[in-house]
Amino acid sequence: MSKPAMIHVTYIETTPEKLWAALTSGAFTKLYWFGRRIESDWSVGSPVRFYDSTDSTDSTDSTGDSLTDSGQVLVYDEPKTLAYTFKNEFLEARADEAPGRVTFTIEPAGRNVVKLQVVHDEIAEDTVEGWRNGWAPILANLKTYLETNRTLEIRFS
Between helices 16-24 and 128-148, what is the axis angle to 10°? Predict the structure, then answer.
C-alpha cells in the first residue's frame, strides 16, 4: 500500500528555465519561500538543506542561519524533474518521522506558460493536510513572484 500524497498543480506564466532557477537557487527561494534559502550542489545523492534567518546558534550554517529542513537529491533532470527527500528539522514533534519525498515536474503548457506539479509523498496520512496547508502559500507566492516580480503579503494565523 502506498502512503498518501499532497498533490498541487498550477500554471505559471514563465519559462521552464526561470521556474527551475526559482526551485534550485537559494537567493531565489528566499524571495518567495518566506526567507527560507535552499542549498545543494544538486548532484544525485547530495544533501539538500533549507535555512531560515534567525538569531539562534543551534544547527546553523556559516552565515548563522538555522537549518529548518533537510533531504537528499533523488532526481535532477533540468528543467523537467526535481526530486528530493524532505524532513522537517525544527519541529520536535516530527523528529522521529521518516523523510517524505518532494517531486517537482515542469512541463511547457503554452507560449511562456508552464505546468508545475508538486507531489509530496511518502508521508503519514495524518500529516497530508498540514503539508497541503504549508505548501499552498509557498506555491502561491512562487507563482505570484514569477508572474509579477513581487510577493504576496500573507498573514499566517
Answer: 120
The secondary element (H helix, E strand) that includes residue 71 is: strand 66-77
pLDDT digits (tens, 9 = 90+) for 2-43: 677 999 999 999 999 999 999 999 999 999 999 999 999 999
- Please, is 3 exposed, middle or buried when counting C-beta atoms within 10 Å of its C-beta (0-12, 13-18, 19+)? middle
Note the pLDDT of residue 106. 98
Dihedral sign from CA coordinates of 9, 14, 20, 26: negative
Residues 6+ apart with CB under 8 A from 71: 47, 48, 49, 84, 85, 86, 87, 99, 102
Residues 108-128 have pLDDT tens digits of 999 999 999 999 999 988 889
In three-state form (DSSP H/G/I as H, E/B as E, the rest C), the secondary structure along 18-63 is HHHHHHHCHHHHHHHCCCEEEECCCCCCCEEEEEECCCCCCCECCC
Residue type, 103: T
